[in-house]
User: Which sequence fits this backbone?
């Protein structure tokens, strides 16, 4: 690696001020699990890294507010979230998903904000939180704004964040009786990069009647993708084998599939058809 400057601002505001939207070689670094790999491979050569390790401690906190909303500071680690008894009790769908996001060594170091801001479509956290209807609070030189997680991604390794904006917090709305499930499909170990990620959040009337559906996929596509046409098809219906087959056909018809080392586009197309039915049944059960 070539030499670079290292700064450790004491506040999030100071960290934002050190970013230069016109200089892509200046980057923030949280846990650094992905960024360091890119640097070692020579894919990214920084002139300066802005460490977020010493910003205000509140950005490492995890809490449930008075409305039952889960608020996760961007500098909380994946392991912190996994080990939050209160968060896992309110959002049981996260419990299993977090254990297979990566190996435990990475989970101990990787930060929530970095996992969301990196933009790799194979990462589990973005589609998981998008399926739950989560938002991120973003701080920049022009103030703060909120972005739905599903709208945070513009393409392969591309986000809608400005170059001088940082994620401050992830905000996950209360389930309030909604049912949710998440599945990760890998061709190797459970914590490996997936061929398909899929998450659903279902508002129901009765055991199998869907009032409203939210369906998110990733890894098979170039970015986190919401299946809006499939959601409309399922709204106001009773789940049965015929409906799930129609939904699978609709789902594979509304996205472009990405071939990579984890599977061909044709393989991922069939995975989506199969796993859409499985994840919906899992949520309803």
Assistant:
């Amino acid at each position: 690696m070539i030499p670079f400057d290292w700064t450790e601002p004491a506040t999030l505001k100071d960290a934002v001020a050190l970013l230069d939207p016109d200089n892509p070689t200046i980057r923030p670094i949280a846990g650094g699990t992905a960024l360091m790999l890119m640097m070692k491979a020579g894919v990214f050569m920084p002139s300066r890294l802005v460490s977020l390790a010493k910003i205000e401690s509140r950005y490492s906190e995890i809490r449930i507010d008075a409305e039952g909303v889960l608020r996760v500071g961007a500098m909380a680690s994946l392991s912190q979230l996994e080990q939050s008894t209160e968060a896992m009790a309110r959002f049981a769908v996260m419990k299993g998903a977090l254990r297979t996001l990566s190996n435990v060594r990475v989970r101990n170091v990787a930060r929530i904000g970095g996992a969301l801001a990196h933009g790799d479509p194979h990462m589990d956290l973005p589609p998981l939180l998008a399926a739950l209807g989560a938002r991120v609070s973003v701080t920049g030189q022009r103030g703060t704004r909120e972005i739905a997680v599903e709208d945070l991604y513009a393409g392969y390794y591309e986000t809608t964040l400005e170059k001088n904006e940082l994620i401050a917090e992830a905000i996950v709305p209360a389930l309030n009786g909604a049912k949710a499930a998440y599945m990760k499909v890998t061709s190797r170990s459970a914590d490996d990069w997936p061929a398909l990620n899929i998450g659903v959040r279902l508002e129901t009337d009765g055991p199998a009647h869907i009032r409203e559906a939210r369906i998110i996929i990733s890894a098979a596509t170039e970015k986190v993708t919401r299946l809006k046409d499939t959601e409309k098809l399922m709204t106001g219906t009773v789940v049965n084998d015929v409906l799930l087959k129609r939904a699978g056909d609709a789902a594979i018809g509304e996205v472009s599939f990405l071939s990579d080392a984890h599977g061909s586009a044709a393989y991922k197309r069939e995975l989506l058809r199969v796993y859409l039915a499985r994840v919906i049944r899992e949520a309803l059960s």
